[in-house]
């Protein structure tokens, strides 16, 4: 595999070097003093470029082992950029949610077709845990199960960019406080649709599963509605 010239136009000297080393399978990156001589770039500039690469998740830096390149992952870059945007305006979260919803709808049929028997069994286990939490006294929020349910459905999507979007969505969802829901009726409706999705998948009625999956996305979260005589843990 080779790195095309046009793909390096936006990369720093350090990132170009790391990309080339990753292609050759070399994990270790020389010290900045060594790289400075090899690349003809000052140590100060390389230090700045290294920090960018570290923040974006392209390399890790440890005192004893030095600099090591990491397998590519879109998640750190996306999480940093999206978090910054949403700090500027919450409207960006709605745009991000819209993109994620369209991607889930697009990949749903393909993903369901790739689910194994174990995947389907796990969906049922997730459902049972969530339903048990909802009917407990006091009720418990099944947020972990909500995230896990979606992740299991799309677990076989072999697109690292799409998987990062799905993962970062949940991270931001939690950061924005949407995971804290005090509307028991809303939770019951959400998980009713999740059960319909599971039953459609389990019985091979993919049309039902798809319909329920899309309909549950149209539910509006009503965080300002209190639940009398009940608290969530």
Helix-strand layout with pairing:
Layout: H1 13-24, E1 28-29, H2 32-39, H3 43-55, E2 59-62, E3 66-69, H4 75-88, H5 91-113, H6 117-135, H7 143-153, H8 160-175, H9 184-203, H10 206-216
What does this structure look like?
The protein is mostly helical and 233 residues long. It has 2 domains: 5-69, Winged helix-like DNA-binding domain superfamily/Winged helix DNA-binding domain (Arc Repressor Mutant, subunit A); 75-216, GntR ligand-binding domain-like (Four Helix Bundle (Hemerythrin (Met), subunit A), Up-down Bundle), CATH 1.20.120. It has helices at 13-24, 32-39, 43-55, 75-88, 91-113, 117-135, 143-153, 160-175, 184-203, 206-216, and strands at 28-29, 59-62, 66-69. Helix 9 (184-203) packs antiparallel against helix 10 (206-216). The model is unreliable at 1-5 and 221-233 (pLDDT under 50).
Outline the biggest β-sheet. 3 strands, antiparallel
Specify the overall morphology.
elongated
Total DSSP helices: 10
Separation of the first and last Cα atoms: 52 Å
Overall mean pLDDT score?
88
Trace the largest sheet across and list its strands.
1-3-2
SSE pattern, N- to C-terminal:
HEHHEEHHHHHHH
Quickly name the level 1 CATH class of the largest domain: Mainly Alpha
| CATH-assigned homologous superfamily of the largest domain | GntR ligand-binding domain-like
Please provide the count of β strands: 3
- Pairing-aware structural class of the strands and helices? mainly alpha
Low-confidence stretches: 1-5, 221-233
Radius of gyration: 22 Å
Please report which band the strand proportion falls in: under 5%, 5-15%, 15-25%, 25-35%, 35-45% or over 45%: under 5%
Number of domains: 2
Question: Would you give the CATH topology of the largest domain?
Answer: Four Helix Bundle (Hemerythrin (Met), subunit A)
Percentage of residues assigned to helices: 55-70%
CATH architecture descriptor text of the largest domain: Up-down Bundle
Q: Which oligomeric form is depicted?
A: single chain
């Amino acid at each position: 595999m080779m790195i095309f010239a046009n793909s390096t136009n936006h990369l720093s000297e350090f990132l170009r070097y790391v990309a080339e080393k990753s292609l050759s399978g070399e994990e270790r990156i020389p010290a900045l003093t060594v790289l400075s001589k090899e690349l003809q770039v000052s140590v100060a500039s390389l230090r700045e470029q290294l920090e960018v690469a570290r923040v974006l998740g392209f390399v890790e830096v440890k005192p004893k082992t030095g600099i090591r390149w990491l397998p590519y992952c879109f998640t750190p870059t996306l999480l940093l950029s999206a978090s910054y945007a949403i700090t500027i305006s919450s409207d960006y979260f709605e745009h991000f949610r819209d993109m994620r919803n369209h991607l889930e709808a697009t990949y749903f049929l393909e993903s369901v077709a790739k689910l194994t028997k174990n995947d389907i069994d796990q969906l049922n286990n997730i459902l049972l845990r969530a339903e048990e939490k909802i009917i407990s006294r006091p009720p418990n929020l099944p947020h972990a199960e909500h995230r896990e349910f979606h992740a299991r459905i799309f677990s076989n999507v072999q697109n690292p960019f799409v998987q990062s979007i799905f993962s970062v969505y949940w991270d931001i969802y939690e950061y924005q406080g949407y995971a804290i829901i005090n509307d028991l009726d809303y939770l019951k409706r959400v998980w009713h649709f999740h059960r319909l999705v599971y039953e459609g998948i389990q019985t091979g009625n993919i049309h039902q599963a798809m319909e329920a999956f899309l309909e549950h996305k149209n539910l509006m979260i009503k965080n300002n509605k209190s639940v009398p005589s009940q608290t969530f843990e």
